[in-house]
Amino acid sequence: MEFRTIEHTADIGVEVTADSLGELFRGAALAMVSLIVDLGKIEGKIEREISLKADDLDELMFMWLNEILYLLSAKGLIFKEFDVSISDCCISSKMIGEKFTPERHKVKEEIKAATYHELGVERRNEGWMVRVIFDV
Description:
Elements: E1 2-8, E2 11-18, H1 21-36, E3 46-53, H2 57-73, E4 77-87, E5 90-99, E6 113-114, E7 120-124, E8 127-135
Helix pairs in contact: 1-2
Protein backbone atom coordinates (compact mmCIF):
# COMPACT_ATOMS: atom_id res chain seq x y z
CA MET A 1 0.00 0.00 0.00
CA GLU A 2 1.27 3.45 -0.94
CA PHE A 3 -0.12 6.94 -0.65
CA ARG A 4 0.91 10.41 -1.68
CA THR A 5 -0.42 13.85 -0.83
CA ILE A 6 -1.91 15.86 -3.66
CA GLU A 7 -2.35 19.61 -3.74
CA HIS A 8 -5.84 20.96 -4.29
CA THR A 9 -7.14 24.52 -4.25
CA ALA A 10 -7.61 25.45 -0.56
CA ASP A 11 -7.96 21.77 0.39
CA ILE A 12 -5.70 18.74 0.63
CA GLY A 13 -6.00 15.29 -0.85
CA VAL A 14 -4.40 11.89 -1.09
CA GLU A 15 -4.04 9.20 -3.71
CA VAL A 16 -3.76 5.68 -2.34
CA THR A 17 -2.87 2.51 -4.24
CA ALA A 18 -3.08 -1.02 -2.85
CA ASP A 19 -3.16 -4.64 -3.92
CA SER A 20 -6.52 -5.37 -2.26
CA LEU A 21 -9.68 -3.45 -1.46
CA GLY A 22 -9.18 -3.95 2.28
CA GLU A 23 -5.66 -2.54 2.06
CA LEU A 24 -6.98 0.41 0.06
CA PHE A 25 -9.44 1.35 2.81
CA ARG A 26 -6.77 0.79 5.46
CA GLY A 27 -4.32 2.94 3.49
CA ALA A 28 -6.84 5.76 3.03
CA ALA A 29 -7.44 5.84 6.79
CA LEU A 30 -3.71 5.86 7.55
CA ALA A 31 -3.09 8.57 4.96
CA MET A 32 -5.81 10.76 6.43
CA VAL A 33 -4.67 10.29 10.04
CA SER A 34 -1.04 10.97 9.05
CA LEU A 35 -2.13 14.34 7.64
CA ILE A 36 -3.68 15.19 11.02
CA VAL A 37 -1.00 13.96 13.46
CA ASP A 38 2.27 12.03 13.56
CA LEU A 39 1.25 8.34 13.48
CA GLY A 40 4.31 7.49 15.60
CA LYS A 41 2.88 9.48 18.51
CA ILE A 42 -0.30 7.35 18.72
CA GLU A 43 -0.22 4.48 21.21
CA GLY A 44 -2.36 1.35 21.06
CA LYS A 45 -4.38 1.73 24.24
CA ILE A 46 -7.96 1.52 22.95
CA GLU A 47 -9.73 -0.84 20.56
CA ARG A 48 -12.90 0.14 18.74
CA GLU A 49 -14.90 -1.83 16.18
CA ILE A 50 -17.12 -0.30 13.53
CA SER A 51 -19.25 -1.62 10.68
CA LEU A 52 -20.70 0.42 7.85
CA LYS A 53 -22.82 -0.39 4.79
CA ALA A 54 -23.18 1.69 1.62
CA ASP A 55 -24.65 1.47 -1.87
CA ASP A 56 -21.27 1.57 -3.63
CA LEU A 57 -17.54 1.72 -2.89
CA ASP A 58 -17.28 5.50 -3.31
CA GLU A 59 -20.00 6.04 -0.71
CA LEU A 60 -18.39 3.44 1.55
CA MET A 61 -15.02 5.24 1.39
CA PHE A 62 -16.75 8.57 2.12
CA MET A 63 -18.60 7.10 5.11
CA TRP A 64 -15.50 5.24 6.38
CA LEU A 65 -13.21 8.26 6.46
CA ASN A 66 -15.85 10.55 7.91
CA GLU A 67 -16.64 8.02 10.65
CA ILE A 68 -12.97 8.06 11.67
CA LEU A 69 -13.07 11.87 11.73
CA TYR A 70 -16.30 11.75 13.79
CA LEU A 71 -14.62 9.50 16.36
CA LEU A 72 -11.82 12.05 16.63
CA SER A 73 -13.94 15.20 16.81
CA ALA A 74 -16.87 13.90 18.89
CA LYS A 75 -15.30 11.14 20.97
CA GLY A 76 -11.68 12.33 21.16
CA LEU A 77 -10.23 9.09 19.76
CA ILE A 78 -7.32 8.85 17.30
CA PHE A 79 -6.32 5.58 15.64
CA LYS A 80 -3.13 4.22 14.12
CA GLU A 81 -4.07 0.63 13.19
CA PHE A 82 -6.98 -0.52 11.07
CA ASP A 83 -7.80 -4.22 10.55
CA VAL A 84 -10.26 -4.00 7.66
CA SER A 85 -12.64 -6.52 6.11
CA ILE A 86 -14.82 -5.61 3.11
CA SER A 87 -17.55 -7.49 1.28
CA ASP A 88 -20.57 -6.33 -0.74
CA CYS A 89 -20.09 -2.62 0.04
CA CYS A 90 -19.86 -3.35 3.78
CA ILE A 91 -16.81 -2.60 5.88
CA SER A 92 -15.94 -3.99 9.30
CA SER A 93 -12.87 -2.78 11.10
CA LYS A 94 -11.10 -3.19 14.39
CA MET A 95 -9.17 0.00 15.08
CA ILE A 96 -6.43 0.54 17.62
CA GLY A 97 -5.43 3.90 19.05
CA GLU A 98 -5.93 6.09 22.07
CA LYS A 99 -7.57 9.22 23.46
CA PHE A 100 -6.43 12.33 21.63
CA THR A 101 -4.16 14.45 23.83
CA PRO A 102 -3.23 17.89 22.44
CA GLU A 103 0.08 17.90 24.33
CA ARG A 104 1.22 14.65 22.67
CA HIS A 105 -0.70 14.75 19.39
CA LYS A 106 0.28 18.02 17.75
CA VAL A 107 -2.19 18.73 14.95
CA LYS A 108 -0.44 19.17 11.61
CA GLU A 109 -3.58 19.76 9.54
CA GLU A 110 -7.15 20.12 10.74
CA ILE A 111 -9.38 18.05 8.46
CA LYS A 112 -13.09 18.82 8.63
CA ALA A 113 -14.36 16.08 6.31
CA ALA A 114 -13.70 13.78 3.39
CA THR A 115 -15.59 15.07 0.35
CA TYR A 116 -17.17 13.54 -2.73
CA HIS A 117 -15.17 15.96 -4.92
CA GLU A 118 -13.03 13.80 -7.25
CA LEU A 119 -13.68 10.79 -5.01
CA GLY A 120 -13.31 7.55 -6.90
CA VAL A 121 -12.46 4.00 -5.89
CA GLU A 122 -11.07 2.31 -9.01
CA ARG A 123 -10.10 -1.25 -9.84
CA ARG A 124 -6.85 -1.30 -11.77
CA ASN A 125 -4.96 -4.17 -13.40
CA GLU A 126 -2.41 -4.20 -10.59
CA GLY A 127 -4.86 -3.55 -7.75
CA TRP A 128 -6.93 -0.63 -6.46
CA MET A 129 -6.64 3.16 -6.36
CA VAL A 130 -8.57 5.97 -4.69
CA ARG A 131 -8.29 9.74 -4.74
CA VAL A 132 -9.82 11.62 -1.80
CA ILE A 133 -10.03 15.39 -1.30
CA PHE A 134 -10.44 16.60 2.29
CA ASP A 135 -12.09 19.81 3.39
CA VAL A 136 -9.64 21.64 5.69
